[in-house]
Amino acid sequence: MSTALTDLCRYPIVQAPMAGGASCPALAGAVSEAGGLGFLAAGYKTADGMYQEVKQVRGLTSQPFGVNLFMPQPGHADAAAVEVYRHQLSGEAAWYETPLGDPDAGRDDGYEAKLAILLDDPVPVVSFTFGCPTRDVLDAFAKAGTYTIVTVTSPEEAQAAQWAGADAVCVQGVEAGGHQGTHKDDPAAGNAGLGLLTLLTLVRETVQLPIIATGGLMRGGQIAAALTAGAEAAQLGTAFLVCPESGANVLHKQAMTNPLFGRTELTRAFSGRPARGLVNRFLREHGPYAPAAYPEVHHLTSPLRKAAAAAGDAQGMSLWAGQGHRLCRDVPAGRLVQVLANELAAVRGAR
Question: Is 0.90 surpassed by the pTM of this model?
């Protein structure tokens, strides 16, 4: 059955918004043009920077695309714990010959300014991570004709999104690369999380909203499994990260299939929030001691990560990756969309 979600793209394939540079206009435009749904990541960008990228995508494709926003974060971080972590990172600052960042550089990621732009000059889709917007915000987007999606990691978060008036939820399994999009970062929960298929079923039986599934999906057969479990589309991030159009650092792309980086872990080492990345030196040495303090730790380590990338040192970078990273295929984004669609069609046809 056709829904507003499935009408947005020819194939049920969504390119995940990956903050930090990977989800650039070239990638989003290529995916949308090929029949998927491309996404820009507004996280860590200024409102104007986001708008410039929106205009670039419009110049690359006439097809629908989306923009992802980070929700403002509550100020619950333990300042003393952040200071202890700053002291621990002093050796990294000396090694990379760069000062540590200001942990108090900002908590809202320019949220209100970005909302104003996207309501004044609407895009087809807007999604939200790290929380759920108010009903007023979602109603405003509905009036503007924008389809809204809220990232969720539990049935309770999905229910909150439904109550607030979201059009759909993006259900994120623990297999996903990058940050877990939990609405509340609870240190007591540790690195607990639900696998995608279990979480999909729980959410499907809790809410009536359309579902986008994400977390570790790399092949058309996995997309088919997610659709069978109740999703209407599948969102892939790591699979698109290595495409030539991706803005990810070349060291990050190479690490995806480098045997030196054989596994992933959830860590707070780079940002203070649980995020899945390839295990490297920085993650091993600092992960056990990083406090639950986002975005303070993100701001603190930002100069270190940039210096490591400039020095060509993947051991000091945040190498975000899903559990399926070894399955990456270095092909153009449009070609990858078609390959995934063909794999999905082959599985469906075999039934």
Answer: yes
